[in-house]
Amino acid sequence: QLHSDQDKGDGSLKYILSGDGAGTLFIIDEKTGDIHATRRIDREEKAFYTLRAQAINRRTLRPVEPESEFVIKIHDINDNEPTFPEEIYTASVPEMSVVGTSVVQVTATDADDPSYGNSARIIYSILQGQPYFSVEPETGIIRTALPNMNRENREQYQVVIQAKDMGGQMGGLSGTTTVNITLTDVNDNPPRFPQSTVHLRIPESSPVGTAIGSIKATDADTGKNAEVEYRIIDGDGTDMFDIVTQRDTQEGIITVRKPLDYETRRLYTLKVEAENIHVDPRFYYLGPFKDTTIVKISVEDVDEAPVFSRSSYLFEVHEDIELGTIIGTVMARDPDSASSPIRFSLDRHTDLDRIFNIHSGNGSIYTSKTLDREISQWHNLSVIAAEINNPKDTTRVPVYVRILDVNDNAPQFAVFYDTFVCENARAGQLIQTISAVDKDDPLGGQKFFFSLAAVNPNFTVQDNEDNTARILTRRNGFSRHEISTYLLPVVISDNDYPIQSSTGTLTIRVCACDSRGNMQSCNAEALLLPAGLSTGALIAILLCIIILLVIVVLFAALKRQRKKEPLILSKEDIRDNIVSYNDEGGGEEDTQAFDIGTLRNPAAIEDKKLRRDIIPETLFVPRRTPSAPDNTDVRDFINQRLKEHDTDPSAPPYDSLATYAYEGNDSIAESLSSLESGTTEGDQNYDYLREWGPRFNKLAEMYGGGESDKDTS
Q1: What CA–CA distance (Å, rounded) separates 67 from 18?
Q2: In the beta sheet, which residues pair with residue 234?
Q3: For 197-300, which CATH superfamily applies?
Q4: Which domain of life does the UniProt lineage start with (predicted)?
């Protein structure tokens, strides 16, 4: 309550309030000055409020006293229970932990004022989880309460922790939380085999590395604490079998280490041990952390394939041996107790040329063709062995045949040599260095000797004794105008037994050289050319000649195409046209048109005279016939020539009639030609042409029109 000394109680003063919460949380009675709270006040929201109060004249609104400030402090009461930040906690602790091992700490908070009474003093207790765990009242640390808690017996625990204020006294407020505790695994259990003896079976034909079976030791632990290593520690098959640990399944896989043989041994006994890899020293007293079992392996009998005495064979033979020579023998046997006979054969895919063969009974390999080391130095064969009683059961073995060298090839020039000698060469001048190659490969290496086949006055050879030789001149000066090329035979021999030699011929050209010995020209024809004619001029002349030849060929082709044009140029239909030759012969008096003497003397005919009525595309050589006697009738001669032409297969079937200047009997149909109209004084009537049909209308119009013109004139 606020009160001013100026207040007479007559209501002339008015109290006003300002500051934190004024008008909302706190209000003042303007007449009496009493301050009231409008709602419940929570200290946890705000612990104190600062307010200002003043008394003023109600009528003038002027302050009668200075403004005064005061603080309202909220006293705390226990109205908040302790709370945990997590509703559920998760924790873990290793199994077999000692009593008092810390698991996790939980902490609760209280919103009440810790400096005022015991409202915020919290005490922890365990409501659920005893007798396995306990909690420290002041700190909230959860600890193990029982020794040797085993994960294999129980793994999960749920603990309920209570936090209570007022120091845990009656009337205090409380809150709870749940803690899920898991026991983690430790290696406190050794591996154990479920059986003391394990029986396995394996066929004797199983290859090395074959898995026979698996064994597994169980371990109650998990993760790396359950990892086991398997090993064979004893038994009569320690060298015949292996065991491999498979990590993902923790099984021991027993495999074949060496080939098995039923006829040699049928039963093996192994002692297998399984041991933990990660052992905790704290639990040695629970050991040993390993276990053993007995594995008995029975070998089953199968029909086995033949077995060769070796895994591979190597035979060496000289290339000059005779056909049918045995180069080696392979041996195989039947490992079964029946011991069936063996048949041998060659895989022809490894001997496509059939150079070798094999005796099927004893396995002897012999040659069927000649050998040549220079063609193939190695032959890789595959020999097949099969039981006669069971041909499908086969075995293969590789056979390597090495062909040894024999000196059967002569040395030759290493390359082709393009050798030349300068015209101004001097005696003893080097013009070429030669070398040789030999297909043979002697043990001591290649050694060649060079010499001339005969004494040569122009050149000589000098052996360098390093498988090369030098070609030297023996005289001064050479002339390509006299001799442009020299042939020099060189004898090359080797140093092996028997000695082989060959003769190689060097072609030496004579060339013009400059002062340094560089070749300029080797053609003798170049001497005949004018001195002033350069290479560019020669090329220009050659191009001109080629252009002239092309022009001549084009001109000939155009002329030939022009000659092939038809004699009759039809404007409409050839059936409705009359061909006009615009040429009239001179008759029998015209001796220039045809020489009748040729018919009487066929020998005088010209070979190249062509037929005048057509344009032939191919020229045929006329056949010569015996000359007819002078007193032979012309008719017989013409008939004879006609018969020859009819029977001549080379004569083309021209659609024309050859005229031989012989006039036969009159035609029954008479002639339609108007060639004789010039000798006839009277005019002819061509009206009958109109009666011959539409094909002769054109002809009728032409001749009918002519008469009309004449009459008109």
Answers
A1: 10
A2: 271
A3: Cadherins (2.60.40.60)
A4: Eukaryota
SS3 for 667-707, per residue? CCCCCCCCHHHHCCCCCCCCHHHHHHCHHHHHHHHHHHHHH
Fold of 88-184: Immunoglobulin-like (2.60.40)
Determine what percent of the chain is predicted with pLDDT higher than 70. Answer: 81
pTM of the predicted protein model: 0.42
Q: Do 197-300 and 307-404 fold alike per CATH?
A: yes
79 token code pair: 């109205």
Predicted confidence (pLDDT) per residue in 298-339, tens digit? 998 888 889 999 999 999 999 999 999 999 999 999 887 778
2.60.40.60, 3.40.50.150, 3.40.50.410, 2.30.40.10: CATH of 307-404? 2.60.40.60
Query: 178 or 608: which carries more pLDDT confidence?
Result: 178
> Would you state the structure tokens that stand for residue 522, as one six-digit string?
């080797």
Contact criterion met (CB below 8 Å) for 499 and 493: yes
Distance CA 452, CA 580 (A): 86
Name the CATH topology of 13-73.
Immunoglobulin-like (2.60.40)
pLDDT band for position 533 (50/70/90)?
Answer: low
Quote the DSSP letter at residue 131: T
CATH number of the structural domain 412-521 = 2.60.40.60
SS3 of residue 558 by DSSP: helix
β strands within 221-355, DSSP E: 228-235, 241-246, 251-256, 267-276, 290-300, 307-308, 313-318, 326-329, 332-333, 342-346
Instruction: Count the alpha carbons within 13 Å of 190 in the hemisphere toward its beta carbon.
Output: 16
Query: Which pairs with CB-CB distance under 8 Å and at least 24 residues apart come from 632-638?
Result: 634/599, 634/600, 634/662, 635/662, 637/599, 637/600, 638/599, 638/662
Coil, strand or helix: which one is 576? helix
Mean pLDDT (whole number) for 252-262: 92
Under a CB-based contact definition with an 8 Å cutoff, are residues 169 and 190 in contact?
no
Where are the domains positioned within the chain? Answer: 13-73, 88-184, 197-300, 307-404, 412-521
